[in-house]
Amino acid sequence: MRIVEPCFTILDELDQQSLAVRIEYCGRICYKSENRIDRNSAIPFVRKMAEYGHNSVLEMGVVTFMVTCATFEPLQALYFLQPKFLQIDQLESHCLIITGSIRAFREMLINHPGDGISRSIGLFLRDRHPYFFEALPVSETAPPQGISVEKVPLSAVEQFAPQLLAKHRHLAVKFIVSRAVTHELVRHRPCTFLQESQRYCRYSADKFGNEVSFIKPVFFEPQSEEFAIWRQSMEAMEQQYFRLLETSTPQAARTVLPNSCKTEIIVYTNLLEWRHIFNLRTAAAAEPSMREVMIPLQQAMQDRYPSIFL
């Protein structure tokens, strides 16, 4: 049995990597297979995710585009489609800023292959990242005339005015927390989540140290009677889990594991939603284990984006 402190890491350095690299890094947290990452592993990994329809993994790559149209008709057509999971702002009469995940752009193309803007963005991405768009309805024809698509680099997104920055800047945070905390985190609908899977992770394996890890509870002092009771309970659950693994699969044995189990989760969303999360999860009435990580995370975000997190 291992007891660990809760913590978080803002994955802003990951934003400097390619889409395939960042998606692989996030995706492998589910199986705790980060040891399989090498210089050639990213594209085969994301190609498999796209082929199998593991859409939550493809949500971990976000791109911002500036779309300029010669006339208003393509913009009007896009609005009528009501595309899902996109942030869209109109800069000028014929110019849009559109931010979305690889999943969002794939589904926009699948659902609306005849739409000019959907097709133009799909062709743009297909030319640069074909492994995301294999077997999708993107032909070899030229993009529709009168529609220009330009990728907005992250450095330019960072220079947006606060109102646009909050909507179009997405940031991922990796948490090491208890299952009790992640049960609450995943209730934030506009976010994307990837989490360590007890269904596939076998904690009796060497890479887990042949032990189950538990998050130190914020509620009990280490020398208290309550902490001793908690520790004895975790030791008993670990023993029962290992006994079940002798004859059962991890997905069956996990049924005895408690909320105190350590888990890793990546939460990915825009700054506007992070602000909403902090408003809820740092309040005096919020769950203490949540406040334990959210209060210092909020301070770190304030240091990075003072115009958003006042």
UniProtKB/TrEMBL annotation:
One of its GO terms (biological process) is dTMP biosynthetic process. GO terms for molecular function: flavin adenine dinucleotide binding; NADPH binding; thymidylate synthase (FAD) activity; thymidylate synthase activity. Pfam families: Thy1. Gene3D superfamilies: 3.30.1360.170. Signal peptide: none annotated. InterPro entries: Thymidylate_synthase_ThyX, Thymidylate_synthase_ThyX_sf. This is Thymidylate synthase complementing protein ThyX. It comes from Desulfobulbus propionicus (strain ATCC 33891 / DSM 2032 / VKM B-1956 / 1pr3). The lineage of its organism: Bacteria, Pseudomonadati, Thermodesulfobacteriota, Desulfobulbia, Desulfobulbales.
